[in-house]
Design a protein that fits this description.
Blueprint (H helix, E strand, L loop, with lengths): L4 E3 L2 E3 L6 E4 L7 E4 L8 H28 L3 H7 L1 H14 L5 H8 L10
Antiparallel strand pairs: 1-2, 3-4
Helix pairs in contact: 1-2, 3-4
Length: 117
Amino acid sequence: MVRIRVEGGKLCGSFGLWDTARSAAGGGTDVRVIASATMNDAKAVLDKYFLEMRARCVSLAADLDRVEHAEAGMALLQSDPRMLRLRKGIELLLESGGNRAERVLMAFSDTTPPPSR
């Protein structure tokens, strides 16, 4: 639930769909707020974030090109364990099923148990 407070007759904080806010100083007055834009519409989400997503893809491509064009870059791209994780992360981006961010993060995480004491 989104927290909203009323201070001096003004709403403060972020507003969600039909959130209720109570004024601490104003005797518990209820205030109903309708969000102007919800992110439930897939087209609206894609419209909002597409250019940013495209820029991140282009940036990653440029980074990989820089490594490849450096001395011994191609061999490094094919053998470095970090590249294996990066490839796995990219594969996970293309899968459906939600929780992509969590799955990609886990692909880059060190899951070895901590050393014994």
